[in-house]
Known about the structure:
The protein has about 400 residues and is of the alpha+beta class. It has a domain at about 45-300: Lipoprotein localisation LolA/LolB/LppX (outer membrane lipoprotein receptor (LolB), chain A, Clam). The protein has helices at about 10-25, 35-45, 65-75, 100-105, 120-125, 195-205, 315-320, 355-360, 395-405; strands at about 80-90, 130-140, 145-150, 155-160, 165-170, 175-180, 210-220, 225-235, 240-250, 255-260, 270-275, 295-300, 325, 335-340, 365, 370-375, 380-385, 390-395. It has a twelve-stranded mixed β-sheet with strand order 7-8-9-10-11-1-2-3-4-5-6-12, with helices on one face. Strand 17 (about 380-385) and strand 18 form a beta hairpin. Helix 2 runs antiparallel to helix 7. The protein is globular, with a radius of gyration of 21 Å.
Amino acid sequence: MAPYESDDAVGAGHQDAARDGAARSRPRKAARYAVPVAVVGVAAATIGLVPALADSGDPDLPKITAQQLIEKMARSDVQQLSGTVKISTDLGLPDLGGLEDGLLSGAGQGGSGKGDGSSADPRSRLTELVSGTHTLRVAADGPDRQKVSLLERGAEYSLIHDGKDVWGYDSKSNEVYHSTAADSGKERRDGPPATPGDFADEALKAVDDTTSVTVDGTAQVAGRDAYKLLIRPRQSGTTVGAISIAVDAKTWLPLKFTLTPRSGGAAVVDAGFTQVSFGRPAAATFDFVPPKGAKVTEEKDTATGRPAPKHGDDLAGGLRGGELDVLGEGWTSVATADTGVKGGLPSGSGEGDLGGFLGSLGDPVSGKFGKGTVFSTRLVNALITDDGKVYAGLVTKETLVKAADAGK
């Protein structure tokens, strides 16, 4: 297990265990990028947000160490819950006038995202969570029944998992997207994280001996007493300042997740329950029958949950289909992949110049790796080289270029 700091002294035996844990964690380093690289691969950007919840009160709870708290989180077995989650995102990107919708959805990829022709495709709809402020209703009844509803003005999008069936429904367009889970009971995610627990799972995968983990007092979230777990990178060169996870003091379920950048300012990621109940949701919550007249689209690849990308189709498809390698260690590690797209940014055809437009959003750089363009956000930076490689990480622009040089 990685070293967890607390008010207690850390003995030599604990340090040895920490080193063993760090060694065991090394083959999983790429898990750090499960969330951000998925976004970078589609949009060369990442997640950011304004605070969604205000903590109220500091409950008096028994003292607990960070290691004990994480162990309790690991043993938490909440099977039933329902509630409301508020999540806001702010990428710190310029207004693209709607272009980002196509980039995030994977439009034009010959069967991926909105290219499937269904507004109910979860891969296109749930990517909306990477920008703006959203309210979600969530419900779960064991591993085979979950529901997430994205509430919009006068409309609702729902993603329902009931046994082997996975349904996406867009009430605004009256469109339905249906797929069959290859393994009922196996975790399936067709979009980015939607609850504090989803975010917390990814953050804890990043904990190793380059990380400081402490208990940072208590809070109240959604009317429940919680401990605050604070995760801080020890390394310079990363864009991550701190991650705070509010953990329910009875069920040990994460209730709120906040990520702040090292540059300061508003939180980059902040998602939390505004209301939560741990009773069993009504069985009808997970029932779904396509409404009369609805357009139903069946998923083409039920085994993997997404059509196989064609090598070299475009930047996003290439990164998703490529092999991810990891350069460096800890929070300054960088994920890299070869897209197969040569010549740098794509050139426009007909009216306009897509490459020129995208290039105006980034900074040209050069080094031992050659030439390329760096796209910077408040959290993830991505370098696209002229020979078709992508480097991305929770690192500064300077750290990213150094990694590309070392990787060359």
